[in-house]
Amino acid sequence: MSSGLLFAAVGCLLLVLGVGGVLLLDHLVRRILAFNLMGSGIFLVLVGLAQRSGRIDPVPQAMVLTGIVVSVAATALALALARRRYADSGSTTLQDKARREDRHD
Amino acid sequence: MIEHLSTPLVWLILLPLVWATLAFCLGPGRGALLGLSGLGLQLLCAILLAVEVAPKQTVTHLVGGWQEPLGILLVADGLSVTMLLLTQAVSLPVALYAYSYLKQGQHWFWPLTGFLLAGINGLYLSGDLFNLYVTLELIGLAAVGLVVTGGAAGQVTAAMRYLLASLVGSGGFLLGVALLYGCFGTVSIRLLTSLIGSQAPLAVWLAAAVMVAGLLLKTALFPFHFWLPPAHGGAPAPISALLSALVVKASFYVLLRLWLGPFAGFVSPLAWLPALLGSLAILWGGCQAIRAERLKMMVAYSTVAQLGYLVLIFPLFGTGSHAMQIGLLQATAHGLAKAGMFLAAGTLVKASGSELIDGIATMAGRLPVTLFAFGLSGVSLMGLPPSGGFLAKYMLIDAALAVGHIWIAVIVVTGGLLASIYVFRVLRLAFLGPGDERQVALQPVSAVMEWTAFMLAVSAIVLGLAAMPLFRLLEGVAG
């Protein structure tokens, strides 16, 4: 297995972990971290698959750089919303209070 | 330098970016005049571009003169010009309405709307998949920012849900881009279309699956619609109008481009799948709209239903029918009618001070223009003649029966009946509802708010009478 394919395989693993985290976790900060894991996984797939021929291809590197900028912006917006949610309702999840109490019963 | 700026293609992206940045520098709540004049110029650019595209079918432009793959190729054809015209034609009246609706207060409506429109226009002009990803993300981030413009706690929760759904959706899209680049070493839609034949390798199948799933999540097609009603129904009215009329159409456009472009060779046997989801969306959205208690939630669920019609055209591609024309006509008619309906609903909510549908009892006599706008939009959503919605649905039934897809015709008719129930429920209350006219004092609403909604609703009707230019524009588009 070439190093490129190894990168891509690890990227897939991170991606699956990340998507699972975004969909299944409750705490907003953990979901935002999971989104970042997902993004990193996709970037690894993008760079890894493209360098199978042995030489470095600059185009996917440039794409990943753009992707990182986008995901930093998205993370900042998500964190701002999570802080606002916490300030408004004291909650760190998206569930309503009533539903959380149901769960504790 | 000058020849790179002399085409309207570039200005459609540059103008909103410029006025959004200037409006941001002016501070919260300001920049309305900048925005309105910028939107006027954008509408002019879109018309100029349509005039340029109509005889030639395709206009391309390399940004800054750089060749691919380093440079970005902008492409405009009949499909993208139609969507660009719709975008500018809806956003100008909505912005006028917003100027009146949001006058006071600390909000960032103008810069966020500018960035949103730069993203949407950029998306329609993109010729490569990676540029589509970047514009999808720009649209998503600006739209989430707009949802929280009102600042209420419910809006923050809705925006967070929307953001997470949107990020997962565009993540799926980017994974597909990565797989396709890994296989073919290009992201150009034109090149990929010629490289991918009918015998697609497994990686391309996987790419198609994650991209389509991501785009369906962003288009809020049933069962991925969970984020849409709270976000669209909870945002301030002009923002709901932008989101429902324009933003969900952008990801649908990408889906259409992929379906008819790179994936055309091998996805056609699966066309029943989006159509099935669309049918469920029409039924589910219609039933939820009938059950809704809040007026704007009803309009938002109506969007869930109307998005279903857009994907019903997929089984009709390649059958010799005008599937593309039908889809674009439905997208345009829904865009105009839904913007008009959301604006009218916003005026009604603001005037009565109540978000509930019951709150508009006996409003007909007091806000006749707004009620008329609501009714006319409803006529197009139900599909009554002579509206644009009627023409789209009639042609859809006609094309479906011609190839023996009777179930599509049944779904379209049922959807129209459901729509008539929720529209007439509101109109009945407004005209005949219980209550005394003198009991509740109305908040004053400006004439601008009433007439912009009316204009949009009337244009949805007029579209049904004057759809030929639209069809001509789409003649040269593949599919």
TrEMBL record, chain A:
Skewed-composition ranges (Basic and acidic residues): 96-105
Give the EC number(s) under which this enzyme is classified: 1.6.5.11
Molecular function terms in GO for this entry? Answer: oxidoreductase activity
List keywords of the entry alphabetically: Cell membrane, Membrane, Oxidoreductase, Transmembrane, Transmembrane helix
Q: Does the keyword Oxidoreductase apply?
A: yes
Residue spans crossing the bilayer: 6-25, 32-50, 62-82
Q: Would I find Membrane among this entry's keywords?
A: yes
Instruction: Report the domain of life of the source organism.
Output: Bacteria
- What topology in the membrane does the UniProt record assign? Multi-pass membrane protein
Q: Which InterPro entries match?
A: CPA3_antiporter_subunitC, NUOK/Mnh_C1-like
Cellular compartments annotated: Cell membrane
State one Pfam family annotation: Oxidored_q2
Q: Which family does it belong to?
A: Belongs to the CPA3 antiporters (TC 2.A.63) subunit C family.
What protein name does the entry list? NADH-quinone oxidoreductase subunit K
The scientific name of the source species is Geomobilimonas luticola
From TrEMBL, chain B:
Where the record annotates domain NADH:quinone oxidoreductase/Mrp antiporter transmembrane, the positions are 126-417
Coiled-coil intervals: none
Q: Which InterPro entries match?
A: CPA3_Na-H_Antiporter_D, ND/Mrp_TM
Give the keywords, sorted.
Cell membrane, Membrane, Transmembrane, Transmembrane helix
The membrane topology term of the UniProt record is:
Multi-pass membrane protein
Query: Where does it primarily localize?
Result: membrane
> Which compartment or compartments is the protein found in?
Cell membrane; Membrane
For this protein, the parts annotated as crossing the membrane are 6-26, 33-51, 71-96, 108-126, 132-150, 162-182, 202-227, 239-260, 266-286, 363-384, 404-427, 448-471
What PANTHER family does UniProt report for this protein, alphabetically?
NA(+)_H(+) ANTIPORTER SUBUNIT D1, NADH DEHYDROGENASE
Say which family it is in.
Belongs to the CPA3 antiporters (TC 2.A.63) subunit D family.
| Name of the protein in its database record | NADH:quinone oxidoreductase/Mrp antiporter transmembrane domain-containing protein
